[in-house]
Structure formats: structure tokens, C-alpha cells
Design goal:
132 residues; alpha+beta; two-stranded antiparallel sheet; 6 strands; 23% helix; disordered C terminus
Length: 132
């Protein structure tokens, strides 16, 4: 089984929502086979560290294996919330892609969708490539 290290967005997509100064970000793998690998690697502590520059104070992770998906509730990340924050994205919609691009995961090659551009890069290199 060949393992590859890729940005999270190569394996999953995301959705975001907000309430007050709290953001909800769901991470949904393209293939169900990636879910257990995401559970092992995309932890609440990694997500909190990623959002430290936004002054996030805590992250709660919820596993939804029947979907499969992960949901992260990130506190104090919206600079006071939609009405108080001065950020250009007061709702935090872009935070989902920040998460998907800011964390790398190591997964079996077959966890990537068939149309993934990372598969072609790996074929050309012949080795595991950390695509940044």
C-alpha cells in the first residue's frame, strides 16, 4: 500500500458556518476509506494550532462516521463575530479552505479521488511527494 502526503483538500472538501464568534467547519472526505485516516490525523489540537494566529481559544471535534465527516467547532476565531469583527470574511467561510490547505495528511494513494492532480504528480515522480 503506497502512502502519500498531501494537503487535506486533496482528500476532502469542507463546509463552514458561524454563530457569534464561533465557526463550524465540516471536513468531508471524497472517499469513505479516508475517514479513519482523517480521524487519526486531523485532531482538535492540530486545528487549534492552525488557527492560533486568529486567537482561537478552543476547538471541539465531532466525528460523524455515518456521513462520514468531521465537524470542528472553533471558539473565538471570528474576531468578535459578524457584527463586531473587522475581518473581510466576518462569517468565516474562507476558514474552511484555510483548514483544508493548512493541514497535510498521509493517506493510502487509493484515498485520493481518481481525478486528483496529485496522482499525476506522483506518477511522474515515482515516489511519494509532499505537494505544497
Amino acid at each position: 500500500m503506497k502512502l502519500v502526503t498531501v494537503p487535506l483538500h486533496a482528500v476532502a472538501h469542507g463546509r463552514a458556518g458561524d454563530k457569534g464568534n464561533r465557526s463550524n467547519i465540516s471536513v468531508i472526505p471524497y472517499r469513505a476509506s479516508a475517514f479513519e485516516h482523517l480521524c487519526e490525523q486531523v485532531t482538535d489540537s492540530r486545528v487549534l494550532k492552525l488557527f492560533a494566529h486568529k486567537r482561537a481559544t478552543s476547538v471541539a471535534r465531532y466525528e460523524l462516521p455515518n456521513l462520514p465527516a468531521l465537524n470542528f467547532v472553533i471558539d473565538d476565531v471570528l474576531e468578535g463575530g459578524v457584527n463586531d469583527g473587522l475581518g473581510l470574511d466576518g462569517h468565516g467561510k474562507t476558514l474552511s479552505f484555510f483548514l483544508l490547505g493548512g493541514i497535510f495528511v498521509t493517506v493510502p494513494l487509493d484515498c485520493l479521488p481518481d481525478s486528483s492532480p496529485y496522482i499525476e504528480r506522483l506518477d511522474q515522480a515515482g515516489e511519494t511527494v509532499r505537494a505544497e
